[in-house]
């Protein structure tokens, strides 16, 4: 649902009349917005009549509004009045699946029964490691501190046929918006399969026995799978050498290791945990090897080794609106004015060092929305619990009343941030996925048009950097390697074979458009803040005219990207410190979000 411009903009407080209708005021020299000025001029003159006119509005504009002179309030807090939250957007972890427990070699012993049958239990399987994106988590800081995550190992089997319990599974919960990249993995079982001949090959070439006539002292060749067997502790070394081990039994696996390299983009909550590393399977107890020729097997198999994987997690916040601005522009103050956030505000650059998320509640929880807005419910994936077949897609996504939206306030960007000046441009990852970008520009700090161009330049550099990274990753991911590649046993990579691949299909790779459009195509607007400072109207007028010429197509998009969003470029003057003009931001944002 698209709302018209007129209904999106709530009437502004009087302090902003000079910005909106400059022709009514002495100081104004530019004449933009004449179509808007008429309908409101009557109202404004009526208001002026009731409470002593121009003098008071002039006074409002030129009043000294240095934050230090204003009384401390929620919007002009002292520097120590803020809520500190732990936040981390990157984490590097090594996850270890559980190793399998060993099978047991044991025999029944009862009174009057010295040589009872084999009764060793099987080892338990090792625990698996899963990952799940959930609502409610907002940061990776808990994971950053952990560095290692281990699933439980399977317990060994015991006598009396008692199997070892399974190792505990571990589910790593991460915030929605996390991207997982596999850096390396160590899978001893897959590596072992490369160096030891496959079962089939060994059957085809029967074990070469020493020719007694030729060389009676020759040792039988070492069985490459010998290390997978556990021998009865009581056997002597000469006895052990004589034990002829059977073929390694073929085991059926419940979980298969996900295909390398893993890359998951968890931009939606995952209804089911996704498997990262499967635990090793448990060993078999000695009763499995009983045969007529070998009634008392003195061996059992060991549990499989655990697989480990080094992963990198990167969180990209999924806010609806992203604030982009120079340091000290007033972004955090604006976030406080729009939401209940208690972001830190200070009169120095780089007050904000980590992103803040604010939630704007549209209906104020009173059931009557301040701004009517509708959001499209995403279609259910087959992995959602409420999925009921294909019928849902016929009706299209459902419209739902929007009751809130979120804003991400990030540290300030300076010119040259792409060269790692200031805090760099890495923080732009938190606004990369926002639906709407809001450029917060301080009217009292230099030319607003130049500031906007500088900001778009940095955003453009970031977009390019991301696209290059994405391309490199895709190239690296194309190198397919399988431990059994080129052999008869090369696994067939079907969706059934790789359970995690199915889940990953739900979270397609976010390959950005190679033209820089993945950010430039977003709707955006400018919040011209600190409008209460004296002599800022001309700066605002110039900005407004520049934006109008972009909308008309006379000027290119500030990022110079072809096909970028220039539908309705708007500048909204506000004084965040006084909470004035912020309603217009709500209406305008909701209009853009509804698209
Ligand atoms: N006069 C005036 N001052 C403002 C306004 N908004 C913010 N300020 C002041 O500007 C200074 C910087 O505000 P912040 O909200 O911390 O700015 P920021 O963009 O978050 O700064 P960084 O986090 O450092 O990037 C503070 O001293 C605020 O009091 C405004 O509308 N009018
Ligand atoms: Mg800030």
From TrEMBL:
- Gene3D superfamilies reported in the protein's UniProt record: GTP1/OBG domain, P-loop containing nucleotide triphosphate hydrolases
A single GO CC term for this protein reads:
mitochondrion
- InterPro entries the UniProt entry points to: G_OBG, GTP-bd, GTP1_OBG_dom, GTP1_OBG_dom_sf, OBG_GTPase, P-loop_NTPase
Does this entry carry the keyword Signal?
no
UniProt GO BP: ribosome biogenesis
Cite the Obg domain residue spans from the record. Answer: 85-318
Query: Per UniProt, what is one GO molecular function of this protein?
Result: GTP binding
Compositional bias per record (Low complexity), positions renumbered to this chain: 35-59
Using the record's annotation, list all stretches that form the OBG-type G domain. Answer: 319-594
A matching Pfam family: GTP1_OBG
Q: Where is the composition biased (Acidic residues)?
A: 213-222
Region (Disordered) residue spans: 35-83, 151-170, 182-229
Could you tell me which CDD domains the record lists for this protein?
A: Obg
Q: What keywords were assigned to this record?
A: GTP-binding, Nucleotide-binding
PANTHER family referenced in this protein's UniProt entry, alphabetically: DEVELOPMENTALLY REGULATED GTP-BINDING PROTEIN-RELATED, MITOCHONDRIAL RIBOSOME-ASSOCIATED GTPASE 2
Report the protein name in the record: Uncharacterized protein
């Amino acid at each position: 649902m698209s709302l018209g411009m007129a209904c999106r903009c709530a009437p502004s407080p009087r302090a902003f009349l000079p910005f909106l209708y400059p022709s009514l005021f002495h100081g104004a020299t530019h004449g933009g917005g004449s179509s808007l000025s008429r309908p409101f001029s009557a109202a404004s003159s009526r208001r002026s009549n009731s409470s002593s006119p121009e003098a008071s509005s002039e006074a409002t504009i030129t009043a000294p509004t240095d934050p230090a002179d204003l009384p401390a309030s929620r919007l002009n807090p002292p520097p120590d009045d803020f809520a500190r939250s732990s936040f981390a957007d990157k984490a590097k972890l090594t996850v270890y699946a559980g190793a399998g427990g060993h099978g047991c070699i044991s025999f029944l012993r009862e009174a009057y029964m010295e040589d009872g049958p084999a009764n060793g239990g099987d080892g338990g399987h090792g625990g698996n490691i899963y990952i799940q994106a959930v609502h409610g988590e907002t940061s990776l800081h808990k994971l950053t501190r952990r560095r290692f995550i281990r699933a439980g190992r399977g317990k060994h089997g015991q006598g009396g046929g008692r199997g070892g319990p399974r190792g505990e599974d571990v589910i790593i919960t991460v915030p929605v918006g996390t991207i997982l990249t596999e850096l390396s993995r160590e899978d001893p079982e897959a590596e072992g399969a490369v160096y030891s001949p496959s079962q089939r090959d060994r059957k085809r070439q029967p074990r070469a026995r020493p020719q007694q006539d030729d060389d009676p002292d020759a040792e039988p060749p070492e069985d490459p799978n010998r290390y997978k067997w556990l021998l009865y502790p009581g056997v002597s070394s000469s006895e052990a050498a004589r034990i002829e081990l059977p073929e390694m039994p073929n085991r059926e696996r419940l979980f298969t290791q996900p295909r390398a390299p893993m890359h998951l983009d968890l931009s939606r909550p995952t209804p089911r945990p996704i498997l990262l590393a499967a635990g090793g399977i448990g060993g078999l107890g000695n009763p499995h090897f009983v045969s007529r020729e070998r009634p008392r097997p003195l061996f059992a198999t060991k549990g499989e080794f655990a697989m480990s994987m080094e992963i990198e997690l990167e969180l990209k916040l999924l806010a609806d609106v992203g604030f982009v601005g120079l340091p000290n522009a007033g972004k955090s103050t604006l976030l406080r004015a729009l939401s209940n956030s208690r972001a830190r505000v200070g009169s120095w650059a780089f007050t904000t060092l980590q992103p803040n998320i604010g939630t704007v509640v549209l209906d104020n929880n009173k059931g009557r929305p301040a701004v009517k807005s509708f959001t499209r419910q995403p279609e259910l994936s087959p992995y959602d619990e409420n999925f009921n077949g294909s019928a849902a897609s016929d009706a299209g996504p459902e419209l739902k009343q929007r009751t809130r939206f979120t804003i991400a306030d990030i540290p300030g960007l300076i010119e040259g941030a792409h060269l790692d000046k200031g805090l760099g441009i890495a923080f732009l990852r938190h606004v990369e996925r926002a639906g709407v970008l809001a450029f917060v520009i301080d009217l009292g700090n230099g030319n607003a048009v130049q500031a906007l161009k500088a900001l778009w330049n940095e955003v453009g550099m970031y977009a390019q950097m991301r696209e290059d990274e994405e391309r490199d990753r895709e190239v690296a991911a194309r190198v397919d390697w399988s431990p059994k590649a080129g052999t008869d046993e090369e696994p067939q990579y079907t969706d059934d074979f790789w359970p995690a691949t199915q889940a990953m299909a739900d979270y397609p790779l976010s390959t950005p458009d190679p033209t820089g459009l993945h950010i430039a195509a977003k709707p955006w607007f400018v919040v011209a803040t600190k409008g209460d400072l004296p002599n800022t109207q001309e700066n605002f007028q110039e900005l407004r005219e520049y934006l109008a010429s972009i909308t008309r197509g006379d000027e290119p998009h500030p990022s110079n990207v072809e096909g970028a969003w220039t539908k309705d470029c708007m500048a909204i003057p506000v004084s965040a410190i006084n909470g004035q003009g912020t309603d217009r931001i709500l209406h305008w944002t909701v209009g853009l979000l509804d698209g």
